[in-house]
Amino acid sequence: MSGVNKVILIGHLGKDPEVRHLDGNVSVASFPLATSESYNKDGKRIEQTEWHNIVMWRGLADVAAKYLQKGKLVYIEGKLRTRSFEDKEGHKKYSTEIVAENFTLLGRKTDFEPNNNSASSSTAAEPSAEANKNLGTGEFGKDEDERDLPF
Amino acid sequence: MSGVNKVILIGHLGKDPEVRHLDGNVSVASFPLATSESYNKDGKRIEQTEWHNIVMWRGLADVAAKYLQKGKLVYIEGKLRTRSFEDKEGHKKYSTEIVAENFTLLGRKTDFEPNNNSASSSTAAEPSAEANKNLGTGEFGKDEDERDLPF
Amino acid sequence: MSGVNKVILIGHLGKDPEVRHLDGNVSVASFPLATSESYNKDGKRIEQTEWHNIVMWRGLADVAAKYLQKGKLVYIEGKLRTRSFEDKEGHKKYSTEIVAENFTLLGRKTDFEPNNNSASSSTAAEPSAEANKNLGTGEFGKDEDERDLPF
Amino acid sequence: MSGVNKVILIGHLGKDPEVRHLDGNVSVASFPLATSESYNKDGKRIEQTEWHNIVMWRGLADVAAKYLQKGKLVYIEGKLRTRSFEDKEGHKKYSTEIVAENFTLLGRKTDFEPNNNSASSSTAAEPSAEANKNLGTGEFGKDEDERDLPF
DNA sequence: TTTT
DNA sequence: TTTT
């Protein structure tokens, strides 16, 4: 018997993805994602931010390492998983993570450049009055194919 | 700035909802929900169950108290919220909950009876070879209206 | 540039799936699905039914042919696709379909039997006061593996 | 009995919203939305665009008229509805629409300015190397409150 | 054309 | 702690 366990988030990365390599060359990327909600209370605009622990595996982790960076806006689809572990003092703790199944970059075209040339990319952007047309999305993780030029 | 924080679950209640009443007569219902996923590993069928802490507020909590019970199958839509608290020993802990925004009962018609007559409902059901036709869904929480006869 | 195009439905099949086999042995299954919404208007309970054209391809079509039948309750995840075509009189028409990516059977265990023994299944059910415990879900389409015993 | 009928889209507006006012001062906004999907076929990058007819009612239509414009990137949540009608020649036709329940603007902060000053906004943007920080989202339609300054 |  |  099976069920449904689905999470859909749109938010900004709080940090660059941290990538580890496990046995058998398996990649795991993880990073915090902030989703913000704003509402009115007593006439004031309140903004409430929720932080999520995102985890990506294998091919998806590799694309994340390449295209995701602190501050970027991203759509993530995944599932909830709660792990239990003991901290250094031996106390049992729980951590709930979102295991991502695919993601889509949201934002301007210039946000979709790979990370390695991050120094130059900030100057390469050259945004102009035309930048408005460059809004778009880059989708990852639906297929398992290698995609070096995903958009 | 706002984002998207959405969870969609289909699973079974692990316990009856526990309902508390806060100041100002605000109801809060909470219960664990199991979503199961099964997959093949080395030719064996593995079933993995994930447990979620569901929280419902106000009107939704009242309907939950009335219609949800341990074992029932339910569709839940909500958002993630992580609270931090200190346990009895003063250690900081985190708890991630799904704050439900609406739910839909899935299952047979006889599952949609209110909870108070649970003793009689088990006999009132009179399931037969025709029971197959009684599968259906009962939806809650989309409107804020009082719904004493929601289906 | 990519985007998000996602549909989530829970409803009943209006007919048995119709399966065709295209060139290269590609299977396509299609069937109508009803999702019902009920609300109060002027003190009366109104039920509004929406019909969706569901299409499933390849492996998913084969599992659909095996496990889905008129009347069954199912969770479907997919994407929207609008096709244009000319009817017999040469008038241009549009048809919007949901191309399913995975589905999960909702209902009692006895609903999860393959279709070929449909005659016997109606008597094999033997529902009792215990039948309540038999609610569950059977998930399909997440992996591309052959699954002859999917639950 | 009720079910689930949910659509989640992220895409660009193909035109400015067209707003009509029905009897009783009810607003209806409608516009086409493009969601694009790209995949590799025979080593070539194929981009396939799907067009959706979006409809928004009442308060949501008013916010749409104010903040949505041709080209903007938006997250939309809603439900499917298929209407039948007769064209001028008396032929029966079907139109499937997404009735939006809420939406969130995605893109740069400068995209979140109201529509009336569209001429100046293109110059007011003054994007810079810092523009990267201005990515964000503005959410609408969750509450029914008036929101003149929604972010 | 489903389901209640 | 559910369900199969």
Fold and architecture overview:
The structure is a homotetramer of 151-residue chains. Chain A is 11% helix and 54% strand. With 151 residues, chain A is mainly beta. Chain A has a domain at 7-108: Beta Barrel (OB fold (Dihydrolipoamide Acetyltransferase, E2P)), CATH 2.40.50.140. Chain A has a five-stranded mixed β-barrel with strand order 1-3-4-6-5. Chains in contact: A-B, A-C, A-D, B-C, B-D, C-D. At the C-D interface, strand 1, strand 3, strand 4, strand 5 and strand 6 of C face strand 1, strand 3, strand 4, strand 5 and strand 6 of D. Chain B binds two DNA strands through residues 11-15, 31-36, 38, 47, 49, 51, 70-73, 109, 112, 133-138, 151.
Biggest interface reads: B-C, 39 and 39 residues
> What is the end-to-end distance of chain A?
38 Å
Q: Give the assembly state of these chains.
A: homotetramer
How many helix segments of chain A? 2
Estimate the global geometry of chain A from the Cα principal axes: globular
Q: Could you list some keywords that capture this structure?
A:
homotetramer; 151 residues; mainly beta; OB fold (Dihydrolipoamide Acetyltransferase, E2P); 2 helices; 7 strands; disordered C terminus; DNA-binding
Describe the structure concisely.
By secondary structure, chain A is mostly beta strands.
